Amino acid sequence: MGSPMSHIFWLWFWHGLKGLHSHGFSFLSIFFGRLYCFCQGFTSTSLVVLVMAIVYGCSTLDCLL
């Protein structure tokens, strides 16, 4: 926590959660939240970036559908 990458991730992650919640998929928000906490246990930045892309991508698709 506290690194620039962490702040960027949280901004995108929160945007993703807001997008999912607005479409009624709160269970997906919980899933991604737990997945994020799980990924925090790793030191691999690429894994965090992958999760960020998934969260942001899902919220973008939900907005388009």
TrEMBL record:
Keywords: Membrane, Transmembrane, Transmembrane helix. The chain crosses the membrane at residues 35-56. It comes from the Eukaryota. This is Uncharacterized protein.
